[in-house]
Design brief:
Length: about 230
């Protein structure tokens, strides 16, 4: 093989590797409210619909309220996937006050009290979800302080996802439902991120890197000494 041919083959190999990496990195899972899961290349909110770019070509447009979550389809290898055990960190209401300078402090406390959640837990979810930006919007349509998807906003009758008080109320209600369903803080957080269907299917925290990183981030903020 002459030098020119070797360079051509090497260039093609690199191009193929980059294409495969890009495809894998951008792959997503669309988790539907009815329990179905669809692997897609991309997902984006357009009006009242979520447009799903299908693997192999083509698109599928579905009502936004039919999609529970969109998560990255990246699985952590088992040897790099240490178990996330349950922590001794009660999630129920606590009178421990939030800092005076914490954004939306009163709204967070009100939403937490109404749903029997520790206000520090709600604040930790807000920090992880939106970094306290009430205008935060994901490509797939998650919006506001607690990044409510259209389906969750509709379920909890949140009419304005950018209103801090409404968003916090809906997000806290959704997290409470996950806690009551799974009776576990780690599983509830995993369900909040990846959808209850995903947690049920794996009978535990899913192996997705996004979800496991999310749970760790929230727990590190909420239970720093555990």
């Amino acid at each position: 093989m002459n030098p020119m041919t070797r360079r051509t083959v090497k260039a093609l190999a690199i191009a193929v590797a980059l294409l495969l990496w890009t495809t894998t990195a951008s792959a997503k899972l669309a988790v539907f409210t009815d329990g179905r899961v669809l692997k897609v290349d991309d997902a984006r909110l357009e009006g009242s619909e979520i447009v799903l770019d299908l693997r192999g070509g083509g698109t599928l447009r579905v009502s936004a309220v039919r999609v529970d979550r969109i998560i990255a389809d990246e699985v952590v290898e088992s040897e790099k996937n240490p178990p996330l055990g349950e922590l001794d960190c009660p999630a129920s209401w606590s009178d421990l006050e939030l800092p005076d300078d914490l954004p939306y402090r009163e709204f967070i406390a009100s939403a937490a009290r109404a749903t029997d959640l520790d206000p520090w837990l709600v604040a930790s979810v807000v920090q992880t979800e939106s970094a306290f930006d009430p205008q935060a919007v994901s490509r797939a349509g998650a919006a506001g302080l607690m990044q409510l998807m259209p389906a969750a906003a509709a379920e909890h009758e949140v009419h304005d996802v950018f209103d801090p008080a409404e968003n916090l109320r809906g997000g806290a209600e959704h997290l409470r439902i996950m806690l009551d369903r799974f009776e576990s803080l780690t599983l509830a957080l995993a369900a909040y991120n990846s959808g209850a269907t995903t947690v049920t299917r794996y009978n535990g925290i899913p192996p997705y890197k996004e979800t496991r990183d999310y749970v760790r981030k929230v727990l590190t903020l909420f239970c720093p000494n555990e």
